[in-house]
Amino acid sequence: MGKMAIAKCILDYEKKSPIFINTSNIYNEMEFGCIHDKWYAKAFSLLASGVGVANIAKLFSNIAVISFNYDRSLEFFLLHAIYNHYGCTLEEASNTLATLSIYHPYGLVGELSGHTNQSGAVPFGHTGSPRVDLLQTYTEQIADAKMLAGIKAAVADSERIIFLGFGFHEQNIELLSVDSKDHFRNVFATTLGISNADKRIISIKLAQSGISSGNIHLSDLSCSSMFDEYLRTFSYAA
After folding, report:
1. What phi, psi does 206 have (nearest 5°)?
2. Mean pLDDT, to the nearest integer, of 201-220?
3. HEC string for the chain
4. What does the alpha-carbon distance between residue 18 and residue 162 come to, in Å, rounded to a whole number?
5. Smallest Cα–Cα separation from 155: which of 174, 141, 136?
6. How far apart are CA 66 and CA 230, in angstroms?
7. CA angle at residue 87 from 102 to 91, to 5 degrees?
8. Which of 9, 16, 169, 171 is most buried (CB neighbours < 10 A)?
9. How many other C-beta atoms lie within 10 A of the C-beta of residue 162?
């Protein structure tokens, strides 16, 4: 019952979000003007900068996403942002999105329709019965060895890590831990509302986990403001 309630709440959140598209009219599209100041839009603008249609396959070539959320809002936004920005078909946008390495350690409320041919796909903001078989709670052990290996490989191979709205819970830091204690990855994190004392602890935990032993930037910024503050930094290759 707990997972059912979680799934219903997440799908309700998706339906109420500004990126939801009412498909009762086939001409309805995502209202990008409503979210131009959100971090999704700013991040996509950075990713798409200098990437033309001819090399769209490289759009996500140097990025991986690890989402501790159950919703699919990022994937849904990216699907339609690609479709809108490049003037391609939704199928082509879906194929491009499929090249993005994105991990949901605690699962999600279903694979998106239009993003996968997998049976049982769940439309964004679905109002019917939700899927709960893909969900795991914080207290459950994550048993997907392939996903865990992919997450750790993504962290180990990275030169820059950006934490957005991350709670820095010990269990989640452990999921990201790697055996590279002396690696000076550039780490940027939103820590709005977190005390200086706790920030020091976060820096220590990030070093102990092998995520980075230096160059850690903890900022009292919102996710959106983070992209404004570090626009040039994020624009350049790590």
Report:
1. -65, -35
2. 93
3. CHHHHHHHHHHHHHHHCCCCCCCCCCCCCCCHHHCCCCHHHHHHHHHHCCCCHHHHHHCCCCCEEECCCCCCHHHHHHHHHHHHHHCCCHHHHHHHHCCCEEECCCECCCCEECCECCCCCECCCCCCCCCCCCECCCCCCCCCHHHHHHHHHHHHHCCEEEECCCCCCHHHHHHHCCCCCCCCCEEEEECCCCCHHHHHHHHHHHHHCCCCCCCEEEECCCHHHHHHHCHHHHHCCC
4. 24
5. 174
6. 20
7. 50
8. 9
9. 21
Mean pLDDT value across residues 170-195: 90
Q: Tokens 């707990």 appear where?
A: 2
Tokens of 17: 């979000």
Domain extents for the chain? 2-103, 145-235
pLDDT tens-digit map of 24-83: 888 889 999 999 999 999 999 999 999 999 999 999 999 999 999 999 999 999 999 999
Radius of gyration in angstroms for the set of CA atoms belonging to the chain, rounded to a whole number: 18
Residues with Cβ within 8 Å of 176's Cβ and at least 6 positions away in sequence, in order, are: 66, 151, 152, 155, 209, 211
